[in-house]
Amino acid sequence: MRRLFLTLGAAALAVAATPDAAPNAAWASPSAGTETTSAVRQSGQARHAMVAAANPLATSVGVEVLRAGGSAVDAAVAIQAVLGLVEPQSSGLGGGAFMVYYDAKTRKVTAYDGREKAPMGATERLFIDDEGKPLPFFDAVLGGVSTGVPGAVAMLDMAHRDHGHLPWANLFEPARKLAEEGFIVSPRLAGMIALKQVPQPSAPDAKRYFTKPDGTPYGAGDRLRNPAYARTLQRIARYGASGLLTGPVAQDIVDRVREGPRPGTLTLADLAAYRPTSGPALCRPYRIYIVCTPQAPSGGPGLQIALGILGRTDIARRDAGDEKAWFEFAQASRLAYADRDRYVGDPAFVDVPIEGLLAPEYLRRRADLIGDKAGPVTFGLPRGAPRSGPDATAEPGGTSHMVIVDAQGNVVSMTTTVESIFGSGRMVDGFFLNNQLTDFSFSPTDRDGTPAANAPAPGKRPRSSMAPAIVLTPEGRFVAAAGSPGGSSIQAYNLKALVAVLDWEMSPQEAAALPNLVAKGDQFTADPFPEAIMRGLAARGMSLLTARGEASGIQAIVARNGRYEGGADPRREGRARGF
Q1: 399 is annotated as an active-site residue
Q2: Cα separation of 67 and 51, whole Å?
Q3: Which pLDDT belongs to residue 184?
Q4: Amino acid 333: pLDDT
Q5: Closest by alpha carbon to 403, among 511, 296, 251?
Q6: Fewest Cβ atoms closer than 10 Å to its Cβ: which of 77, 443, 453, 574?
Q7: Residue 535: count of CB within 10 angstroms of its CB
Q8: Measured between alpha carbons, how far is 280 from 301 in angstroms, rounded to an integer?
Q9: What architecture (CATH level 2) is domain 2-129+146-279+392-578?
């Protein structure tokens, strides 16, 4: 059954047509019916330390940092610098991130929040046009109005001050050298450059960067240099996050954001005032384990709700070949999404009823709604629930994930993003700017004026689906780390990976390769499943829409039998390596 699902997971790639998946299908598709060559390339085992990241160059740099005595956070800094160069469609210096960090000595998990913030000039009508209607989505994305204050570099700077071993400046040297000398464009990046389904690759800045002197676009195998990125890295290496958020780079960000069409209100004061946050992770029991994620406004609460519901089913006594298991999975997903969409926003601005949403009695009531058929699903009424309006947020997939275990046993699980593919399509100083503010609800209120939890506001962080996870034993020993990109589907991808590893005892690579099923509201989008499972789900009122595959990018590491096992989603170019 495991072999069958590995093969099915690979076959699903061939029909994937979502913007973030299609260009990589041919690259990542394994050979049918065998232990896949991509799985062999992408998975790994190690005794001392391990990295799983979304690009082979980034993974290699991370491993070398660990070999040099670097910490997991050191490796994360170096990996992010490389990913922003070689995978700019997904993350970069102009974006944001969430991280959970496990300290092997104290056995505590800390959550770091590098989520972007709206400028102080933003209003709840950020994406409402002059006629009072929500803007068309890509009109908003391409405008300067979509860009928030970037937080990934500031978050990494904070985490490095807390847990770094190697000098900050040294960690940017591998990426700086790659930018100066050039890197080989991967098949996936080439596919994104050629993508026509979204407008960012054709935006003026992106087109200028990705066009060769002879007027043709860069393709797979071409060498692409980015000296402007190298100069920006040198500034960050010297000045820390201040090198990005103050001075000439900050001025360039502000100038580009305030250009038309649809200019934003971002100021130098907004950038200089940005502060990441850190604090205890959101940790809750799942069967015999403890799962830790970031707090709101991340996707952590939504993932914890889904796990809390599934923990009250018999899915652990089933397996990936059982249609009832997938039905329970989908129903738990729908219930969790309904609650997340209704209640989760920036807790500095709205009351998020976390304790009520995760209370055992509430989760039991929600689990009791799973039933045998897929009827209508709506949000619940947990203890402390505020009055809030419906959500109208669109979240495209353009994100990356990394997991790292260093030689001391410390662990990083980090999801990082510029939001959509190539963010807003606007560049400054060698990197793309985020379109993260489109993660707010475009319609800020209900008809009666009740505000949505995720409505825009000045200085507010938009809700995110990013939910990096670390799993521990009740005694606080490391079990696993996982996460995925994928827009609003992240919650379902991470849930699948955790269920497969913890309940079905699959390897990280097997878990990543399993078909995806994203159930939200009345939509059930999926990779192809075995016909018997699809028929069984249809009989329960779940007809899977498989015309387009869901584009996950799971990275995972599991501690088993004194070793680390790593896996990377075969739908993308990730690699798991260690020593």
Answers
A1: yes
A2: 11
A3: 98
A4: 98
A5: 511
A6: 443
A7: 12
A8: 14
A9: 4-Layer Sandwich (3.60)
Residue 139 identity (one-letter amino acid): D
Residue showing tokens 């570099």: 153
Q: How far apart are alpha carbons 37 and 31 in whole angstroms?
A: 7
Q: How many other CB atoms are there within 10 angstroms of residue 33's CB atom?
A: 12
User: How far from each other are the two terminal CA atoms of the chain, in whole angstroms?
Assistant: 30
Residue 107 to residue 579: CA distance in whole angstroms? 23
Bridge-based pairing of strands 563-568 and 575-578 is unpaired
Q: How far is CA 411 from the centre of its chain?
A: 17
Q: Mind giving me the DSSP string for 452-496?
A: BTT---TTPPPP-----EEEE-TT--EEEEEE---GGGHHHHHHH
* DSSP letter assigned to residue 217: B
Domain boundaries, the chain: 2-129+146-279+392-578
- Helix H or strand E segment including 303: helix 300-310
Q: What angle do CA 519, 398, 509 make, to 5 degrees?
A: 65
The confidence score (pLDDT) of residue 428 equals 98
Q: Which residues partner with 451 through β-bridges?
A: 445
Sign of CA pseudo-dihedral 371, 377, 381, 382: positive
Nearest Cα residue to 483 out of 511, 462, 505, 463: 511
CA torsion sign for 80, 161, 171, 108 is: negative
- Provide the token pair at 71: 């910490």
What pLDDT is recorded for position 551?
A: 84
Q: Are 385 and 77 in contact (CB under 8 A)?
A: no
State both tokens at 545: 């829409």
Could you say which of 36, 59, 147, 399 is catalytic? 399
Question: Which residues of the chain, if any, have pLDDT below 50?
Answer: 1-37
| Cα gap 323→321, rounded to integer Å | 6
Tell me how many degrees the CA angle 28-30-36 measures, rounded to the nearest 5.
Answer: 125
The Cα–Cα gap between 575 and 48 comes to 17
Rounded to whole angstroms, the Cα distance separating 422 from 568 reads: 22
